[in-house]
Amino acid sequence: MFKDKKNTLTLAAICLSSLMFGLEISSVPILLPTLEKLLKGNFSDVQWIMNAYTIACTAVLMASGTLADRYGRKLVFITGLILFGITSLLCGLASAMPLLIAGRFLQGLGGGIMLICQVAILSHQFQDGRERSMAFAAWGIVFGIGLGFGPLIGGLILTFLSWKWVFLIHVPLSILTLGLAWAGVRESRSAQIQRLDTLGMISLCLAVFGLIYYITQGPEMGFVSNYGLMVLGASAACFLLFLYAEKTSIQPMFDFTVFRIRDFSGAIIGSIGMNFCFWPFMIYLPIYFQGVLGYSSLMAGTVLLAYTLPTLVVPPLAERLLLTYRPGIVIPLGLFIIGLGFMLMWLGIHAAHLGQWSMMPGMLLSGIGLGLSNTTVTNTTTGSVNPDRAGMASGIDMSARLITLAINIALMGFLLSKGVLIHLKVAFSGTLNTLQLHSAAEKIAAGNFVGLLEKNPVITIVDPAGNVTHEALAKGFQLLTLFGGIGVIFLALVSFMIFKPRSPQNSLERG
After folding, report:
1. pLDDT beyond 60 at 354
2. Cα separation of 278 and 405, whole Å?
3. How far is CA 234 from the centre of its chain?
4. For a Cys staple, 405 with which of 59, 115, 275, 421, CB 3.0–4.6 Å?
5. Nearest to 326, CA basis, from 266, 401, 369, 386
6. DSSP labels for 324-360?
7. According to the model, what pLDDT value does residue 215 have?
């Protein structure tokens, strides 16, 4: 494939590691209804299974790049790979929700280290123009396969093996990748040693963690309680500390001066828009298919391909559109199409009797919109700044994606539970007290109807066929799709307004 055999081994290692990272994002959601039942967790536990991974990735993303430049990209990549393999084993052996959530956090640390090193290793080792293009194309395709086919792979493993193997499969894959990386990757370091922005990294992660904790635990601790307000205040203080750290640091993790570049700022709004609803909603879609439509995990994973596969097929079209139209057209258009897809899914839930076909048009349209935006955003963020700042720009882009994803997983979970609760209050008025209603809403939002009936047997008497409870879950998803559709269309308009036609003056803004 390549003149140098080491390059072939390196590309195989990088592609395998990107496949594992993509699978851990998209295959796990299909497990969540099962995990909530088997490990006896609650709805917030289900959210933390995903958020622990994304928060950990965000925590190490920028620091890993600096450490890799200083101590060696091969060394840091292998370290992340070993951590990912060991923690995947811990996740697969977990017997309780706290253990799985802790394992997912540690797994996210390894995943974040691998992710940031992948690009650095490819950039250094593939210098020839043709080989470089082939390497990055292969990496992008394999990463997309992990994201696109993850739901189906997770459904297959859950059906024919056990949920544990969704995590355990990464142990032999990590060992294989480790051997390939050890044999193929050449060690490299940066000539310019960067300082580690420890204060910025820690303060940002604490700010994000505090906000997510406030959203997920708010119904239990009270949003306006002393404890709740203290958590929110601490989160705000950490964010202000982060802004101070970036403003005063000699080598900041986030150089905010790049936001003066309109193309960069418009593309970052695109990053936020894609992760505002598309990826967070995929966490909850399996609950809709299994809880409302009664599909098996395998069937739910198969139907989800309509949501994810367009993200693999459409990017070449996006690249062609980018040659004809500027990013200020393509990115907002992609976001608008995602929003339109969510509005169609909102309408589709009204016609749930049609089965998966009622959701299919909206799912396909949203996937097409993401395919138009995804690579376009990456190209624009890195291409709108000077080459020596491309790494920092890419880090801001990836951080914006992961932070938005983590916050909106929590926010969508809150809205889903709230939508279910509103319907239950009307349906069971005078039958269940406030505490029972909140407990029932959490069980229904997680798709755990068995746990619901065990804890509230009176529901069996009032709603023996389960029509009310299933309708409540559908109403919750109506609220989610409406929120996602309106939100991303608004962000599409914001992105469009920030962009402006290219001009000589705009090119001089690059800093």
Report:
1. no
2. 9
3. 25
4. 275
5. 266
6. HS-HHHHHHHHHHHHHHHHHHHHHHHHTGGGGGGGTH
7. 83
- Closest-CA residue to 413 (of 205, 206, 215): 215
Give the pair of three-digit tokens for residue 100.
């799985």
Q: Which residues have CB under 8 Å from 261's CB, separation 6+?
A: 384, 385, 506, 509, 510, 511
Q: Which residues of 11-32 are buried (b: 16+ CB within 10 A; e: fewer)?
A: bbbbbbbbbbbbbbbbbbbbbb
DSSP reduced 3-state for 65: helix
Using left for φ > 0, alpha for ψ between -120 and 50, and beta otherwise, residue 488 falls in: alpha
Instruction: State how far the Cα of 26 lies from the Cα of 247, in Å rounded to an integer.
Output: 36
Superfamily (CATH) of domain 254-511: MFS general substrate transporter like domains (1.20.1250.20)
Tokens of 175: 């060992």
CA distance to 37, 47, 213, 290, 424, per residue, from 41 (Å): 7, 11, 16, 18, 21
Poorest-pLDDT segment among 110-119, 152-161, 310-319: 310-319
CATH topology of domain 1-181: Growth Hormone; Chain: A; (1.20.1250)
Taking residue 335's Cβ as centre, other Cβ atoms within 10 Å add up to 32
**CA distances (Å), 227 to each of 196, 221, 241, 467, 504, in order?**
33, 7, 21, 38, 53
Helix 327-350 vs helix 262-291: angle between axes, to the nearest 10 degrees? 20
How many helical (H) and strand (E) elements, i.e. helices and strands, does the chain have? 23, 0
Tokens of 311: 């993200």
